[in-house]
């Protein structure tokens, strides 16, 4: 009891006496710290060859493609139209190839993949709610076509941004290939009516 | 130990605690002046919705169209491509005070899939959270701070807070709440206020900042800056089942802050309002 009270008293005294945030050493920032920091503003942190933009792009497309594969596999399994089934199969295979390329880019840079977008309403990413609704849609083919078109259109926008902003060679090449593939897939989808 | 000694020690502790409150409140100036001001370390900025874009200059820099939808407040020029404060410095914003051309953004709120425009958007800069507001330094120009967890999957990993304006009897929750008719849904978000003192951003956009521990900034993040508290009010109430954020349910509420306050304006407010623990108005003068 006595010890507890003494400890409390000492703690209270030091808290009001020192006025410091903590008794532990708490170095003040060196003079001019702000000016130095301001000059470093541009670009953010670099991670080897993979800068912030390239890394964000790779992580986003991995997250998007994971969801797209789920959508496309549903199309392969449930679409009535043979043409739609075949297109879904082609696109699913392309997404899987894209995923392994993107994973390879992170592996080379020794960056573990983190899904920053799970549960988000991201451009080009079919959501879990949409996939669930698709399974019980009265007209599966129509709803699948709508979701596939949204994926391709929005993913094309992301790919164009990546192709024009990314400087990392391999990631830029993936983005450029995505622009071509999304565009050609949209034409195929339109051709199926 | 006798009862008397215990009583004496208790009284001594109470006196010490009371003294601590006064000292940490920061006595400055003459007694007359001290009585005239409100002893809360605070200055505000009130802003409006500027624009809505699927962009995020911090998390998805230079990738327009790659983000979930965000509501941008303050600086009118913010896009995925404005990744440095120099790019925002020449622009105007819609905050009061107009000198605050900082950029603030949050995920878009939808009710039955229709976007909702927040009607009350206040950013409080506060001296609370650390025991010694006198040591708080101005937020450096260009500092980027992210608060909240856009990936929250439950209450445990969320710091979101939802409540009702004018309906204090509705308990606050980490997820959306059912606000009575005639009231508004509101949300609070406290940003981390301890800076590492060297970098304006970090690769995870979080680790250059930290929350205080036991009233002080940790030695890894030794520089206290004003605590930013965002308060948003949305003109919706009733059944929250039709509500969602572009990042998920209410627990995924998060906010991004890109500081573009002119250095002199921020420094003046920290010196005149935060350090001496005085409540200031939008102009940064004592109320």
TrEMBL record, chain A:
UniProt-listed InterPro entries: DUF305_CopM-like, Ferritin-like
Protein name per the record: Uncharacterized protein (DUF305 family)
Signal peptide: 1-24
Sequence ranges assigned to domain DUF305 in this UniProt record: 56-190
Domain of life: Bacteria
Low complexity bias locations: 33-44
Organism, as annotated: Actinophytocola algeriensis
Annotated region (Disordered), positions in chain: 24-44
PROSITE patterns membership: PROKAR_LIPOPROTEIN (PS51257)
Keywords: Signal
Gene3D superfamilies for this protein: 1.20.1260.10
Automatic annotation (TrEMBL), chain B:
Lineage: Bacteria, Bacillati, Actinomycetota, Actinomycetes, Pseudonocardiales
Name of the molecule in the record: DUF1996 domain-containing protein
The DUF1996 domain, residue ranges: 56-261
Matching PANTHER family: DOMAIN PROTEIN, PUTATIVE (AFU_ORTHOLOGUE AFUA_6G11970)-RELATED, PTHR43662
InterPro entries, A to Z: DUF1996, TAT_signal
